[in-house]
Design a protein that fits this description.
Layout: H1 16-19, E1 24-27, H2 32-49, E2 54-57, E3 66-71, E4 82-87, E5 90-95, H3 98-113, E6 122-125, E7 131-135, E8 155-156, E9 159-160, H4 164-175, E10 180-182, H5 200-213, E11 217-222, H6 226-229, H7 241-257, E12 261-266, H8 283-294, E13 300-304, H9 324-329, E14 340-345, E15 368-374, H10 390-398, H11 410-415, E16 425-429, H12 445-456, H13 462-474, H14 478-498, E17 536-537, H15 556-561, H16 571-574, E18 577-578, H17 589-612, H18 620-652
Parallel strand pairs: 1-2, 1-3, 3-5, 7-10, 7-16, 10-11, 11-12, 12-13, 13-14, 14-15, 15-16
Antiparallel strand pairs: 4-5, 4-6, 8-9, 17-18
Domain Glycosyl hydrolase family 67 catalytic: 112-438
Active site: 271 (proton donor), 350 (proton acceptor), 378 (proton acceptor)
InterPro entries: A-glucoronidase_C_sf, GH, Glyco_hydro_67_aGlcAse, Glyco_hydro_67_C, Glyco_hydro_67_cat, Hex-like_dom2
Length: 663
């Protein structure tokens, strides 16, 4: 086996309190997901407790001990919700549907992994979000766009891969509550366009069946121009009747061949991808054409809102990439069909270490929305730096949009609580590859695990999720738990300190987005500027500048529009600020830049020291892999510090108040 089991690497426990429950499992096992639940319990019992589990069909007799898996419509649970309870030696995992049974079974297994007793257990969970999806940017040649942990395990040499790793991946995803997976890159090119046809569709169907056994629906990224590339058309106009009929016929074929297909993810009219703009149509026209074609089969269309002018003139101070998502979509509110979901990035730019929450959240009251985040760490260290992102995601979910008097947070909107939407949730750009540990950096697995757990249960804290992952992955040694938790919780703030300051973002090398390059994008077409001169830096997005701040509901619009009330951590995102401007800390902007970059390096060094103190307490192979990356992180953080600080010292001629070395 050329891969590890990540947080499902079970280890023996001398645990007599739980052994009695795992000797027998009762239930009806004909349904594939129910059977999967039994197999997972059986495997955990054998590997953790050294117990052989007996499968017993039907309900237990009075006085029986064991685990009873049952769907129960009277439990007031959603189809994916579960209720674990223990009474007199019998653990009951009840659920609204079979997927709930599977999630409840994995929750029961977490009891074993984390050393908790099932005696007297009482746990009721309904998932916070209807859709919990991983977006893979995998290409048919085996490469992964923005992939930092090896090659694809879905594709290789223009073929679809089906092997034992496919099942292992499905186990990992289901164990944390993922119920949808997009297997191919949103930038659909070449043979990826043909995944909806033979010979590929049969292999996709085989993969979809494996996913279905784990309660996961398979999605594909779709090429909007497919009628031209696969058919005989010279147009992909969404209002052309022949084009619409072609899509309807094609979808009839596709859903017949791939029964567990959930639908399609579409990137259109962005970064060179084809879309309705070519034909003078809008995004509602494009999305609705596809939605009509998939609706008879229960399919959904997830339409990305990452649409902007990537031919911007850097001399133009009014055109603003940050405005584009709202400008393109807000006026279309209410026009999308009910099986269309708009997938909105957490911020208006592109997964920076700090940016404001996207104003489309709270800006569209009659449209299904799903929150898109990125765990692939494209701009947060590319899985060479440890950067635990769950604290960031919790801040995003907690953001108040003021779109209604109550239940107005991003979490409320994407859960469906605000407007009663049925199709909504969270999606993450995935961080997996064929590396032996799945995620390159062993600690990057905390983001994969954490996204699943947070999307299933958004009231969990970042600390709770991290501790759970640590114990499931490394065991429950208290020193290991405490020190890795400290590393994880200080990692995102540390990265922000030595990265671009105060929300400005983008000071990275173009194209591959790794390492400091202050002016790398400053005169480019991508709209990602910092506007630094000898007096100050930042982009004026107030009503005196690009007007972006006014896309928010009040009081957020006024908060961001005013320089003094704007939060310091976003000051440079919204305003062009003098270097001598004093932040709430009392420091000038320039001194803040100097201080945080020195502090960030010190934090990186501290994380490395904490890890080194665990030598001999974690598996040697993991210790060595992670240490190598932490050593790189310390060096790279120093490179960030020296380049950023030197740039602004040379720009201003103002030295560091503490007299530290700046080049």
């Amino acid at each position: 086996m050329d891969f590890e089991q990540a947080w499902l690497s079970y280890r023996k426990r001398t645990d007599d309190t739980n052994r009695q429950y795992f000797a027998a499992v009762y239930g009806e096992f004909e349904e594939p997901v129910m059977n999967t639940a039994f197999l997972e319990i059986e495997r955990a019992a054998a590997e953790i407790l050294d117990v052989k589990t007996e499968r017993k069909r039907g309900m237990p007799e009075p006085g029986a001990t064991g685990i009873w898996l049952k769907t129960d419509p009277e439990e007031a649970l959603s189809e994916e919700g579960y209720h674990i309870s223990e009474r007199d030696g019998l653990v009951v995992i009840a659920a609204g549907g079979v997927r709930g049974i599977l999630y409840g079974s994995f929750a029961c297994i977490r009891y074993l992994q984390t050393g908790r007793t099932l005696r007297g257990a009482e746990l009721r969970e309904n998932p916070s979000n209807p859709l919990r999806i991983l977006n893979h940017w995998d290409n048919m040649d085996g490469s992964i766009e923005r992939g930092y942990s090896g090659k694809s395990f879905f594709f290789r040499d223009q073929e679809v891969l089906i092997n034992e790793r496919t099942v292992a991946y499905a186990r990992l995803a289901a164990s944390v509550g993922i119920n949808g997976v997009v297997i191919n890159n949103v930038n659909v090119r070449g043979n990826a366009t043909r995944l909806i046809e033979e010979p590929y569709a049969s292999k996709v169907a085989e993969m979809a069946k494996i996913f279905a056994d784990y309660g996961i629906r398979l999605f594909l990224s779709l090429n909007f121009a497919a009628p031209m590339e696969l058919g005989d058309f010279d147009t992909a106009d969404p209002l052309d009747e022949e084009v619409r009929e072609w899509w309807k016929e094609k979808m009839g074929e596709v859903f017949t061949r791939i029964p567990n297909l959930g639908g399609f993810l579409v990137k259109a009219d962005s970064e060179g991808r084809p879309g309705p703009f070519t034909y003078g149509r809008d995004h509602a026209d494009g999305a609705n054409m596809l939605a009509e074609a998939v609706k008879p089969y229960g399919g959904i269309i997830i339409w990305r809102c990452f649409v902007y002018n990537c031919q911007q003139d850097w001399r133009d101070y009014k055109t603003d990439r940050a405005r584009s998502g709202y400008d393109n979509f807000a006026s279309l509110d209410g026009r999308f069909l009910d099986n269309v979901i708009l997938q909105v990035k957490n911020g208006p730019m592109d997964f920076q270490v700090r940016e404001p929450v996207h104003p489309l959240f709270g800006g569209m009251k009659e449209t299904n929305q799903i929150l898109e985040v990125q765990i692939a760490q494209e701009y947060t260290g590319q899985q060479r730096h440890v950067c635990y992102l769950i604290p960031m995601f919790r801040e995003i979910l907690a953001f108040r949009t003021y779109c209604s008097e109550t239940e107005d947070t991003v979490a409320d909107i994407v859960s469906g609580r605000t407007w009663g939407n049925k199709l909504c949730g969270m999606a993450a750009v995935a961080n997996t590859g064929d590396d032996v540990n799945w995620t390159g950096h062993d600690m990057a697995a905390a983001n994969l695990y954490g996204f699943g757990r947070l999307s299933f249960q958004t009231d969990l804290t970042a600390e709770e999720i991290a501790e759970e992952w640590i114990v499931c992955t490394f065991g429950d040694d208290s020193e290991v738990r405490e020190k890795i938790l400290k590393i994880l919780m200080m990692s995102w703030p540390a990265y922000e300190k030595y990265n671009a300051p105060l929300g400005i973002g983008w000071m990275v090398n173009p194209n591959f987005h790794y390492g400091p390059s202050v002016d790398g994008y400053e005169y480019s077409r991508w709209g990602t500027y910092h506007r630094a001169d000898h007096e100050g830096l930042g982009v004026d997005r107030s009503d005196r500048g690009t007007g972006y701040a006014m896309q928010y509901n009040e009081p957020n619009a006024s908060l961001y529009n005013d320089l003094d009330s704007c939060p310091d951590e976003l000051k440079l995102f919204f305003h062009h600020v003098p270097y001598t401007y004093r932040l709430r800390s009392g420091k000038t902007v320039l001194q803040h830049i100097y201080d945080t970059h020195f502090e960030g390096v010190a934090d990186a060094e501290k994380m490395k020291e904490l890890w080194q103190s665990l030598e001999g307490k974690v598996p040697e192979r993991i210790y060595r892999r992670a240490l190598e990356r932490l050593e790189h992180q310390v060096w790279h953080a120093a490179e960030w510090r020296d380049q950023i600080n030197s740039y602004f010292f040379r720009k201003t001629g103002i030295g560091d108040e503490q007299g530290r070395e700046i080049y």
